[in-house]
Amino acid sequence: MSMAAERVEAAGGGDDDYTQDGTVDLHGNPVLRSKRGGWKACGFVVVYEVFERMAYYGISSNLVLYLTTKLHQGTVSSANNVTNWVGTIWMTPILGAYIADAHLGRYRTFMIASLIYLIGMSLLTLAVSVPSLKPPKCGAGTADPGCSEKASSLQLGVFFLALYILAVGTGGTKPNISTIGADQFDDHHPRERRHKLSFFNWWMFSIFFGTLFANTVLVYLQDTLGLAVSIAIFTAGTPFYRHKPTSGSSFARMARVIVAAARKLAVTLPDDARELHELDDPEQGGGEEDHAAAVHAILSKAAVKTNTTSRWSLSTVMQVEETKQILKMLPVLAVTFVPAAMMAQVNTLFVKQGTTLDRRVGGGSFEIPPASLQAFVTISMLVSVVLYDRVFMPLMARATGNPRGITLLQRMGVALVIHIAIMGIASATERHRLAVARVHGVADSKGTTIPLTIFVLLPQFVLMGVADAFLEVAKIEFFYDQAPEGMKSLGTSYAMTSLGVGNFLSSLLLSTVAHVTRRHGGGGGWIQNNLNASRLDHYYAFFAVLNCVNLVFFFLVCRLYVYNAEVSRVVDVGGSGSGGEVLRPKEVAMVDTNL
Fold it and tell me: What is the distance in angstroms between the CA of the first residue and the CA of the last residue of the chain?
């Protein structure tokens, strides 16, 4: 057999060959692709995500209303408590990614974190179910019409303890479950790589499918049961999963590169890149392409050979390149903070607006819960993902020659433009709501329903779902795809970190704007407990301007970013009869930047 034929057979062989991406079973043994992985394994992962998202969004979508109506908190404090908790939810994945990549592996980290998650959910169910853990009812027709009696320290302590135990659990599940799913597809196999291009679209579909039920039919006890079911489903798929071995601490490797480069700032890079330090094992080191790329960066000085061989003074070219790949994604990460802050409004101020409007359906007595409007975010996102994957992506792929249709950064850019439109529409809608309140003389009345249908808010919810279909899928796929092989969980945690920082940013902006406008703007400020006396239209207009500034920054980031896709294109060698050269990942690295 010729060398070319051997390469084709290795790259495009049948389903009974071993995986070529280093995946193993739980005991470290090589795995046959016909026995493990692929959509067969991903089925368990995707179904898990549906049930888990039911549990999580069943809490987050109603949390601001629970804090205000049951624990008697004000608009600013309740909104900030929600965004601070959600921010923590999305920041803890950094720790979970570190533990998975460096110590326990993704599967074991996920299983331990799932138990912590379940404990937090169970405690939360008790906190909302036991009467002594809530203050007495207040409002019209009760002994406390002004809601002056607040929740006690014990009641708040138990409630928030449960929430933050849950946050610790999600820190171990969120960065690993999507990565486990993506690991089921071998980039070295043409058909599996094609399937992987669609995986993140359907992954996000499963998330929002679960969210749809969370926003409409579930309560806390059902959330807890749903989480238990999701863990059982994931565990049932254990015999079918492929696993990536641990690769040591990503943070330690990057820290050693940075320290080594700092110690050798005055050192001159050699003219011959092959003089840089690299391991003898070709599987551990980089090829000539890696060396050439390394020569032109300050961090490459970490690989310059000197008299010392300390790990904190000398790094390999591969370690330098891994560090550069992680660090160069930081500007892209920064771009996602502002849209993440926009998304936080869906669970807070958008829902609060709904409480002031006429929630009757068809003029009858049935009223929809304000949080149920979030279901329209979900529905529009589900429809958008399907249309994107089945219609838009194939059409654009034929037009551009890019298997993804458009690049991941271009997909993010479309979402950023939509976010500007969302906040502009939200500002105009809020201005109309306030005008109706003034006409009917209820501008100064807290708790009085404005004679305006709640469905006037529908456009901002629907467009948010469309934006999510572009941004959230592209974001998680981008950070997974562009992260080094041994840092995939860390790369995936970037996507969660953006949501965490975005929620903290939302809290900061809300508190700052409320304080500044109350102190210097006259009246009670833009954000008050009485939304009819607030100026949320100004606040949303401020967000629209902020999005425009962020879009300009995004264009600059796109201009400077260089993709480092491991595999630049898919070569179908199965059954076509046309032959052709099959390129290995290292041979095509940095060749095609269209991915």
Answer: 34
